[in-house]
Each structure stands twice: as C-alpha cells, then as structure tokens.
Amino acid sequence: MTDLVLENVHVRYGSGASAHDAVRDVSLTVGSGRIVGLVGESGSGKSTLARAVVGLHEPHAGRILVGGTDVVRARGREAAIRRDVQMVFQDASSSLDPRMTVGASVEEALAVRGTVARGRAARRAEVARLLETVELDPARAGDLPSQLSGGQRQRVAVARALAASPRVLLADEITSALDVSVQGTVLNLLRKVQRELDLTVLFISHNLAVVRQLCDEVAVMKDGRLVEAGPTTRVIDAPEHPYTRDLVDAVPRLAAPVDTPTLHRGAVS
Ligand SMILES: Nc1ncnc2c1ncn2[C@@H]1O[C@H](COP(=O)(O)OP(=O)(O)OP(=O)(O)O)[C@@H](O)[C@H]1O
Predict the structure, then answer these.
(1) What residue range is the signal peptide (predicted)?
(2) What domains, with CATH codes, occur in the chain?
C-alpha cells in the first residue's frame, strides 16, 4: 500500500529577479492504488510537479511523501525509495536510445535500478516477462526503436519504468504524441498494469475525456496552483472553480457523458 502525498510543494526556477515559481503551495494526495488525473492549461506547472516527485527538480519548499517516506530527504541515500517512483514521458522516441535494441533498453533499466542482478539468463527472462506485461511480443527484443510504431515505443517506455518494480507511476501526457487510433490501446495498457500491479498513478493529461474515463479523481492546476480537486465525476460534471468550468466547457462532448470508443472502462483488454 503506497500513497503519494504532496504537502505545500513549491518549485522555483531560477533565482533572484529571474525567479519563477512554477508550482506554488500544492497539496495533493494520490491514494494507494488510485489513478488521479492532473489537468490544466499548458504552462500551469503539471510537468514541473511530476518532475519534482521523481527528483528531476528539487522542490523549493514542501514535502513529497511516498508511502510515508519523505523522498526529497531520502533521495541519494536510499535507492529503493528512488525506484519506488517511476515516470513515463510524452515522447518515447526521445527517452529511448535509438541505437539500443528494445531488449537492451529494458535490460539497462533492470541493471541500473538493480532489480535483477543474477546473471544474463535471469535478466533476459525478466526482459521477456516485462515485454509480455506491456503486450509486446518478446521476439521484438532485438528490434531497434525505429522498427516499432509510436504506440509500441511507448509500451517499451512503460516496460522500462516497470523494470524498477515501482509502486507509484507518473504518466506525463503519455498518449499525446500518438495517433488517436493507438491512444486507447496504450491507455488500456496503463489501466491493465495499474490494476495488476496495484500501482498508484498520477496521470497528467490535456484530454479531459480520457481523464473522465480513466481517473478516480482529478486535480486542476492553474498558474502553478491547485484550484480544484475531487472525484472525477464531481469535478467534471459540477465544477466549482470558474477555471475548471472553462476547461470543461471547452470540450463540448463532456457536457453529456460518452464512451471513449477505444477505452474500455469495465473489461481490461
Ligand atoms: N527548465 C525550466 N526552466 C525555467 N522555467 C521552466 C522550465 N520548465 C518549465 N518552466 C516554466 O514553468 C512553468 C510550468 O511549466 P510546466 O512544463 O511544468 O507546465 P505544464 O503544465 O506541464 O505545461 P505543458 O502542459 O505544456 O507540458 C511554465 O511557465 C514554464 O515556462
């Protein structure tokens, strides 16, 4: 059981006159095994917040707790805590080494994170298992990223994140670089692994229709601050903050709930 708790988190870029507070006093809880959507217009601070959680930015103030442990203080000291939180980015093309095969890339994630240290055969078996988990044929392990589709590359990125056996996954616009036709399959995969592994997920997205289908709760950011958070249906169907209302009104289909055709709420494909 691992929850992610943000307490009064501030993240500042630069210093002095050029200082810019990209995240201001954000407090948010992602309950264990829950999926919380983080929405807000471009530049509102969503990625900065997620990057602070995985240690790519140092918070200027506040606490970030994973399963009750302050990860900012523990960082650099406890590899196990670092492994607990993994992030998948928007563009798998830039996060995968183009010269490295898919299998080597996943194996590297295992090796760097120390998940499997027992010889090559064990690592290869673990790579095959991870590829199967993300529904990629292990026979593709010898392929280069350029031989895969965008959706398949994103599956490899998910497999690399899962190599660390994380308890918390941050997904930052993981489908926005993909064709609409494959977005649903990647989202279904995310839901499948979230359920199978009981992951705690912070799901950053511009797409409120997807957030409505996927997320238990939603948090709304504007200018670095959290302006509203709550159960997804409540926030989308009865927004309290005018900014949330504007976001919802900008997506006419949200006015009446609809099924997103490629995303299956009940059965996991
Ligand atoms: N490395 C950086 N140095 C300085 N400022 C930055 C840096 N990265 C982001 N910012 C600024 O911080 C603010 C928040 O940016 P951030 O990327 O976190 O927003 P976002 O909500 O994730 O936007 P998007 O949806 O476009 O990804 C913006 O004003 C942005 O210009």
Answers:
(1) none
(2) 4-95+168-255 (3.40.50.300)
